[in-house]
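Re: the pair you flagged

First of the two:
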Amino acid sequence: KLTVTGPYHRVTQFLTNIASLTRIMAPMNVALGPTARDLKTLRPQAGEMLLDAQFEIQTYVAKGGRGP
């Protein structure tokens, strides 16, 4: 289980990058909501709202077939 905090477009870019890895990895059970963290320590840019994204990562492994 993972949690990341950031602006919407950066969070979605992060999830897209996970889904685009060479090994098949899929974000599962994604939940987005306004951050519960202290904004004074995060220092968002002016007019920027931060999200907490909570999700799990599921990894798939392809079993290789036997050769002749």
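Second of the two:
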Amino acid sequence: TANVSPQFQLRGMIGRAVKSSLVSDSAYNVEKNYSVDGTYAINPRLSLKGGYSAQPRRYIYSGPVPVNTLTRETRHTVFSGLEYKRSERLSFYVDGGHERRTAPGTLFDYKNTFALFGVRTRF
């Protein structure tokens, strides 16, 4: 995390995880994560954020791999959002973005656009 200026914060992340797989018949999968995002405080109550992440994943099978089986995938996500802090305990936010998944063949490819409106509270 880097505080570029008093109003702008930039964060980067690199990760790798080995997980059991519930998506396919694979024994486990190896997932990597590369992301960067930034937050800009327009004023003390209003902030704008945005970022990008890429998540390549490789599925490991314990035996022969059948035809048309998911062996690897990559998800690319671009997102942005706006948050309004009504008080220290209450804030409202709207987020949106676009996700694209690519895999060998076209059977497992998809695109997704999402939007979210939320309320955050702290006790």
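DSSP finds no helices and seven strands in the chain.

-B.
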